Amino acid sequence: VVAFQSLAANLSALDTGNSNQDVFSRNIQIGQTESNQTYLVSVNKDGTGGGNRNSTSPVISANGNVVVFASNASNLNSLDTSTTQDLFARNLQISQTAANQTYLVSVNKFGTGGGNNMSSNPSISADGNTVAFVSTASDLHSLDPTTNTNIDVFARNIQIAQTAANQTYLVSVNKDGTASANGFSNSAVISGDGTT
């Protein structure tokens, strides 16, 4: 399976007349002449078309089942109504027309919406269960002060309900375990088994 971003409007029957970048995937075990086999990963929450803003930077799990990507779209998930860049995950085993199946990875600590600032640079475990990422948001974890503007590293197990509060792990926690680091942390990479 290959995941990619594209401005093209003729890759998927769901994505027509859309001038935004979208994320797609294609199983290359399928013949390249077979029609309508490219999956629109950045499908809107209704399963009817692409996102209303750009979606970029896809990464795919080693098992080929889950794609994580960044997006400024506000119509991919019912919890996220802002155009701040968030991270999302889509299980490719689920029909692309199934509504409300895209997971908001960068959900706030209350489980009520996206983070209050940009999240980016996702890394996904081999089994597709855990995503590590960086963010300047200050509302993803209770240990991260609301006045913090540093980039921090977080991890989220996407098998946990996205509405579950306080389930995002602050990776760049200080040595005392009391708050986030006092400088920028970046370049998150997660192990294959998702534990480190």
Describe this structure in a few short sentences.
The protein is mainly β and 196 residues long.
Topology summary:
Elements: E1 2-6, E2 22-26, E3 39-40, E4 55-60, E5 66-71, E6 86-91, E7 103-104, E8 119-124, E9 130-135, E10 152-157, E11 169-170
Antiparallel strand pairs: 1-2, 2-3, 4-5, 5-6, 6-7, 8-9, 9-10, 10-11
Detailed description of the structure:
The model has no long low-confidence stretch (mean pLDDT 94). 39% of the residues are buried. The protein is mainly β. It has no helices and eleven strands. The protein has strands at residues 2-6, 22-26, 39-40, 55-60, 66-71, 86-91, 103-104, 119-124, 130-135, 152-157, 169-170. The strands form three sheets. Strands 4-5-6-7 form a four-stranded antiparallel beta sheet, with no helix packed on it. The two termini are 25 Å apart.
Radius of gyration (Å):
16 Å
Strands ordered across the widest β-sheet: 4-5-6-7
Morphology call: globular
- Specify the biggest β-sheet: 4 strands, antiparallel
The total beta strand count reads 11
Please state the structural category.
Answer: mainly beta
How far do the termini sit from each other? 25 Å
Order of helices and strands: EEEEEEEEEEE
Search tags:
196 residues, mainly beta, 4-stranded antiparallel sheet, 11 strands, globular
